[in-house]
Amino acid sequence: ALAVLEARGGRVPSDSFAREMGVLPHRVPGYVADLGEKLALDGMQPLRFDRVSGQVVLDVGLFRTLYSEGS
Questions:
Q1: CA–CA separation, 7 vs 27, rounded Å?
Q2: How far apart are alpha carbons 52 and 71 in whole angstroms?
Q3: How far apart are CA 23 and CA 14, in angstroms?
Q4: Mean pLDDT for each consecutive 10-residue tract of the chain (71 residues)?
Q5: In this structure, how many other beta carbons lie within 10 angstroms of the beta carbon of residue 5?
Q6: Is the pTM of this model over 0.70?
Q7: If 17 and its partner were Cys, which of 12, 38, 53, 62 is the partner (CB 3.0–4.6 Å)?
């Protein structure tokens, strides 16, 4: 999931994300919420589903900050 998002600049339409991940499109928000909770660190969540745009969004900068070596 992270590789797909990073390769596309951190934003992927939900239907494309569903296809890449092999999940049903209507399950994307829950899938992303679950994964986002697992990636959250110190109360910061770098992954979210934007219902307005219908996109899965990875804050690449925040993700790198949270998970860079030495953090």
A1: 22
A2: 33
A3: 10
A4: 92 97 97 96 95 97 86 54
A5: 22
A6: yes
A7: 12
pLDDT at position 20, please? 95
Six-digit token pair at 44? 């910061």
Pairing of strands 11-13, 55-58: antiparallel
SS (H, E, C) the chain: CHHHHHHCCCEEEHHHHHHHHCCCHHHHHHHHHHHHHHHCECCECCEEEECCCCEEEECHHHHHHHHCCCC
Q: Report how far residue 69's alpha carbon sits from residue 71's, in angstroms, rounded to the nearest whole number.
A: 6
Q: Report residue 69 as tokens.
A: 């070596």
